[in-house]
Design a protein that fits this description.
single chain, alpha+beta, six-stranded antiparallel beta barrel, 22% strand
């Protein structure tokens, strides 16, 4: 496997295992905090095993990533970076050394975002567990009465979520409430069920078999949960990427160039990030691909041949654009090289002119 692909694979393993570890830590902690939580046979041991396994795989992935970075640093020490950058002329880019020192800030910012996503994930897991606990508590503390199914909602008929309407009596008052079905039991109108309702709020009801969890609360929690499951590993990968690019740019410094951001039809369709066509002062050219990041390059496509600075090497490169309108600091875009630097052949149309 190529070094770049191997590193990305280990990054994915590290992010996934860290996510599994966080989820199991939160779930196990919440379960242990509930008095009398009914652990099934072997459930606690399985949770501990999952925690140990995910922690071990996370540590292994982190070790392999660091080992790969050390090997890359050794190789980098022997390189002159000419496949990606021209030789530095005079004090080229030295006045922008402060921007190199700002790159770790972007890594720390991504890490903070990852921690926020972890908080969202923890809150959603706890919230879902509380919804489930509320339904189970009602089964223990609620009042029971006979009920009759008056209508069954089949999701295959397009009527919505699987549910049923149950009529039951609270004293002399007849109530009919919808109960969401979460079991495989089949119901028909006229079936008798045991309704369990809250004495203080009789419309809060379930049956012995169906929990009837609050679907509004579940829906409110599931959406941010799914976002956190995507955002947490993405933020961790972004933090690692900025750290790696900081080390690369610190080793190479900046080179001034003219750049053109090209958004092709694949990029507009969301399947590819924009290309950045680079022309150095010595006439050599190369093509970069913007990395997936909140620091995107698409908004910079309207000014071709703009002055910018390039740093890093291989898959750890940064394009530093001049400050955008309304901003004081230069704008860093993470990128990776699609191909090495070279000179256009006689009669060949440069890529940036062809795109124009």
């Amino acid at each position: 496997m190529e070094p770049g692909r191997a590193r990305r694979a280990w990054l994915a393993v590290e992010a996934l295992c860290a996510l599994v570890f966080v989820v199991f830590v939160i779930g196990t902690a919440v379960s242990l905090a509930e008095p009398g939580y009914p652990f099934e046979d072997g459930e606690l041991a399985a949770d501990v095993g999952a925690l140990a396994g995910s922690a071990a795989l996370t540590a292994l992935a982190a070790h392999r990533i660091r080992a790969g970075d050390r090997r890359a640093a050794t190789v980098r020490a022997r390189l002159d970076f000419e496949p990606w950058l021209p030789p530095r002329e005079g004090r080229d880019g030295e006045d922008l050394d402060e921007e190199i020192r700002r790159l770790p800030t972007l890594a720390r910012r991504a890490l903070v975002i990852a921690l926020l996503w972890a908080g969202v994930l923890a809150g959603c897991i706890v919230g879902l567990d509380l919804v489930e606990y509320s339904a189970d508590a009602l089964l223990t503390t609620g009042a029971r009465t006979g009920g009759v199914v008056v209508r069954v909602v089949d999701p295959h008929s397009g009527d919505g979520a699987p549910s049923m309407w149950v009529r039951y009596h609270v004293g002399d008052t007849a109530l009919t409430e919808e109960i969401v079905r979460d079991t495989d039991r089949r119901y028909r109108p006229g079936d008798e069920v045991t309704a369990v309702y809250d004495r203080d709020d009789p419309v809060h009801v379930r049956t012995v078999e169906e929990r009837n969890e609050n679907q509004y609360s579940v829906g409110f929690l599931v959406v941010p949960l799914l976002l956190a499951l995507a955002g947490l590993p993405w933020s961790l990968v972004a933090a690692g990427g900025w750290s790696r690019r900081y080390r690369a740019v610190r080793a190479t410094g900046w080179r001034v160039a003219s750049v053109t951001v090209v958004v092709d039809h694949l990029a507009r369709g969301g399947r590819q990030m924009p290309e950045i066509h680079v022309r150095y002062g010595d006439g050599s050219r190369m093509t970069l691909r913007a990395a997936f990041s909140t620091h995107g390059a698409t908004s910079l496509r309207k000014r071709p041949e703009r002055r910018a600075w390039i740093g890093g090497w291989g898959r750890a490169m940064v394009v530093l654009f001049p400050p955008r309108p309304g901003h004081e600091r230069p704008y860093a875009v993470p990128a990776f090289a699609k191909r090495r630097r070279g000179r256009p052949s006689p009669g060949e149309t440069p890529p940036d002119r062809a795109a124009a």
